[in-house]
């Protein structure tokens, strides 16, 4: 029987954690940047700004189908009505200044390689496979690991700052260093601290190092230097873990750009903003035609999306495999959108 556990993304957070950093990416604002109390919504540049009174505060349930560690196991997200939604496309990215939603795929101290299935309807979390067999890391991962929703590493974009590497066609990864072991599918409010530019078989695979806002050390850690002070050796351990984890399978170690060093918080925010912009282009089909053919070909029985290349009317939100991006049931706005 499918097990359901309820999670609530709380709306009230420590104000000091939301407003410490002065860094704002005003040139490329995040398209779905919500506000908490007394904070303003940053809408796309083509729209005027509003004072947003409404708060994103859904109750998202996680519904497990199948048994863990089997090929059929899936972790779906459903809204209050029981309707399936996408953890990648329907959970908003930003909650306030420099505060983001992080979706847990792999809890710390575990070895099953779980990931959002970007090629399946509603993008559930599943265990990765290779040649029909479930994949495991050769040893436990020591931090909570997952993704930032509404981000995408564009495989058609060569990053001139990271050896011209192209994106890996996935959401941006997060390594959360807090003390709590999270659960698969948990949505956690985090603040970015650093970024590692991993190059995996020639593809750029960003790792955003972050910490949960409810961690006891969160108020002391705000940038890359603070990580070294309060979590000594952690950044090196993260880099070494991701560099070496494929070696037992006979593959070469992964490489890292940016001088093999972690970038600071401002750079991490820049990466998040750029990959959110790429995600917006993805769901609006504003990407090269040949790339669309590679991506938008997943069969679905949903009548809304039988023609996977149909661009929805301007009055509708973009869609992905039958999923309504920015599901209206998950958003509570009060005159926040023109």
TrEMBL record:
InterPro entries listed in its UniProt record: Pyrophosphatase, Pyrophosphatase_sf
Cited CDD domains: pyrophosphatase
Keyword Isomerase appears in the UniProt entry: no
Enzyme category, top tier: hydrolase
EC number: 3.6.1.1
Gene Ontology MF annotations: inorganic diphosphate phosphatase activity; magnesium ion binding
GO BP term, example: phosphate-containing compound metabolic process
Cofactor(s) demanded: Mg(2+)
PROSITE patterns for the chain: PPASE
Keyword Transmembrane on entry: no
Record GO cellular component, one term: cytoplasm
Reactions listed under catalytic activity: diphosphate + H2O = 2 phosphate + H(+)
Family to which the UniProt record says this protein belongs: Belongs to the PPase family.
Protein name: inorganic diphosphatase
Native source organism of the sequence: Acacia crassicarpa (northern wattle)
């Amino acid at each position: 029987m499918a097990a359901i556990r309820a999670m609530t993304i709380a709306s009230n957070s420590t104000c000091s954690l939301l407003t410490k950093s002065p860094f704002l990416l005003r040139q490329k604002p995040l398209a779905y940047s919500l506000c908490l109390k007394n904070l303003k919504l940053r809408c796309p540049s083509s729209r005027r700004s509003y004072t947003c009174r409404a708060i994103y505060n859904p109750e998202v349930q996680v519904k497990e189908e199948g048994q863990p560690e089997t090929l059929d196991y899936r972790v779906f997200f459903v809204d209050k009505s029981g309707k399936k939604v996408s953890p990648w496309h329907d959970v908003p990215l930003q909650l306030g200044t420099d505060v983001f939603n992080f979706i847990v795929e792999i809890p710390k101290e575990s070895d099953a390689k779980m990931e959002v299935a970007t090629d399946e309807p509603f993008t559930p979390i599943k265990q990765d496979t290779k040649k029909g067999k479930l994949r495991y890391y050769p040893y436990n991962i020591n931090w909570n690991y997952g993704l930032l929703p509404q981000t995408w590493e564009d495989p058609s974009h060569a990053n001139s700052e990271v050896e011209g590497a192209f994106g890996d066609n996935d959401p941006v990864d997060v390594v959360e260093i807090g003390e709590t072991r999270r659960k698969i599918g948990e949505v956690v409010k985090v603040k970015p601290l650093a970024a590692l530019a991993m190059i995996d078989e020639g593809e750029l695979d960003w790792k955003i190092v972050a910490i949960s806002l409810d961690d006891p050390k969160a108020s002391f850690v705000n940038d890359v230097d603070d990580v070294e002070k309060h979590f000594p050796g952690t950044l090196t351990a993260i880099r070494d873990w991701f560099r070496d984890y494929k070696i037992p399978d006979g593959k070469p170690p992964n490489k890292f750009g940016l001088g093999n060093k972690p970038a600071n918080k401002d750079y991490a925010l820049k990466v998040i903003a750029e990959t959110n912009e790429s995600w917006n282009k993805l769901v609006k089909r504003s990407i090269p035609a040949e790339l669309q053919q590679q991506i938008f070909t997943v069969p679905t029985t949903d009548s809304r999306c039988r023609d996977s290349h149909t661009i929805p009317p301007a009055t509708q939100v973009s869609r992905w495999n039958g999923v309504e991006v920015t599901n209206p049931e998950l958003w509570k706005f009060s005159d926040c959108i023109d």
